[in-house]
Amino acid sequence: MTKVPAGGPERPGPGDGAALDNIAVLNNSAVPDDSAVLDRSCLTDLADQLASPEAAAQFAAVFVEMLPERVQAIEEPLADIRVQAARTAALSLGSSAAMIGAQQLVRDAGLINQHLKTGSLDAAREVAARLSADAAAVAAAIEDLLAGQ
């Protein structure tokens, strides 16, 4: 199973104009469409809500940094049949993923929660089996965005 890199991207600092510019032009039609993985308009909305593209870029960087632990917080309880812990972790991942537009992670987390809610542990484990790969794709998309690609 592919794991999300533990280090994540470097956090954009106050002088990191590239990351700020990238957040500011997210809705530009010249930006490649990777909306199946990352809905960039959510980051634009977050930047607007925070009145700070820098804060939105920082949130995205921290999200990527925390992804390995969030995925592990779902996988481990599923292996140990700790349903409530897995549901709590899935809800947490889904909420923060929605804030930055990580659509596939929102779907994965929602499915895991729904399967656990209905007692379908095996179905939840099947979704969780692809969670690391989906998280890696989201991390790569965010890293590319923050790097200006």
Topology:
Elements: H1 17-24, H2 40-50, H3 53-80, H4 83-100, H5 103-117, H6 121-129, H7 131-147
Helix pairs in contact: 1-3, 2-3, 3-4, 3-6, 3-7, 4-5, 5-6
Domain HPt: 52-149
Protein name: Hpt domain-containing protein
Pfam families: Hpt
Identify the CATH homologous superfamily. HPT domain
How far apart are the termini? 27 Å
What is the oligomeric state here? single chain
CATH topology: Four Helix Bundle (Hemerythrin (Met), subunit A)
> What average pLDDT do the residues reach?
83
Helix/sheet category = mainly alpha
Per DSSP, the total helix count is 7
**Count of discrete structural domains:** 1
Share in β-strands: under 5%
Helix content: over 70%
Name the overall outline.
Answer: elongated
List keywords for this structure.
Four Helix Bundle (Hemerythrin (Met), subunit A); mainly alpha; Hpt domain-containing protein; elongated; 149 residues
